[in-house]
Amino acid sequence: MRFYSGFAESFYYAYRYGPSLYERARPVKVEALCDAVSRVRDVRSTRLAEAGVFAPLAGPGCLEPSEAGCHHVLVPRTSNRRKTGGLVRHCWDSPIPPGSFVLSGPGIYVSTPEFTFLQLARELDMVSLVLVGCALCASYTLDPKTEKVRGREPITSVERLSCFLKGASGIHGVARARRALRQVADGAESPQEINMFLMMSLPPALGGRGIDGLKLNYVIDVKDTDAGIVDRADRRFARIDMGVPDQNAGAEYLGKHHERQVDADRNRLNFLLAKGERVLQAKYADLSDPVKANRLANQLERILGRGSDEPTPSEMLAREKLSNTLFGAGRMQI
């Protein structure tokens, strides 16, 4: 009996195609899954391409180059974990929680984002698992060729992940998944927003600053009394990339597209300042350079009225490791 498909490919399809993959699919009960897949003695007998399922590519949100072009399949025994004939097999020897798969084509079962997150809990370190969790709950995708950010509806949420994990009690990896989920946030609109959020929100033991209450892309409503200060007559609300809403403090990430809208950004930030919002601005160099990143974190802590404690040697090492995970040569392409 073989279960399609494994975590890496599931993450590729979930991240790449978004909600449309699950809108055209239908949930599958565990009993039906086991019965249907058990009739297929080898997944190679299933014509995946004819069913519209193609092996994933390398690139942002996709697989490592060495695993690109292969299909990833879950199998029930460790002895089956091997790569043959364009298949990479991954062992899953635990019960399958409800809501783990959807039927996306004749004989083709794809892991849901929630089951993908649980599978990843067995494979990734804690920071990488939180990083992937934020990506699964994000409101964007990356084109694997151009790396351009495109907006979309999120494919899952912290709430849905939490509900799924409640139904997976006792399964190996669920405890790590639950710990990681406490650090995951909904609503990121770009990879660098996730990076900035993790640098500020993760606990010091994981390299972050441990700032509580941070939210991504929270909304500031425009009221009738703002008529004289709002930057555009048609504006009904404004979003702040990251911050603590009840303390009117946050930070905005200025990506490359902001270079084409300098005046609009200045007017918008002036409006937010007049509304009482204290918003820092950050570019890629401010996040990827450890000295600048430390200064940015200190500035946000000062705005929030927090003191900046001297990090311990172990916390300094954790910050260095986090920076390498987010920005180093071996960073996860999501």
Key descriptive features of the protein:
2 domains, 12 helices, alpha+beta, disordered N terminus, globular, 334 residues, 4-stranded mixed sheet, single chain
Question: How would you sum up this structure, described in words?
Answer:
The chain has 334 residues and is of the alpha+beta class. The protein has two domains: 3-181, no CATH class; 191-327, no CATH class. 35% of the residues lie in helices and 17% in strands. It is built from twelve helices and 13 strands. The protein has a four-stranded mixed sheet with strand order 1-3-5-4. Strands 10-11-12-13 form a four-stranded mixed sheet, sandwiched between helices. A three-stranded antiparallel sheet has the order 2-6-7. Helix 5 (126-136) crosses helix 7 (174-181), helix 5 (126-136) crosses helix 8 (191-201) and helix 6 packs antiparallel against helix 7 (174-181). The longest helix is centred in the last third of the chain and has 15 residues, at 313-327. It is globular, with a radius of gyration of 22 Å. The protein starts with a strand and ends in a 7-residue tail after the last helix.
Short description:
With 334 residues, the chain is α+β, with helices and mostly antiparallel strands. It has twelve helices and 13 strands.
Overall domain count: 2
Q: Kindly report how far apart the N and C termini lie.
A: 32 Å
- Please state the structural category: alpha+beta
Helix content: 25-40%
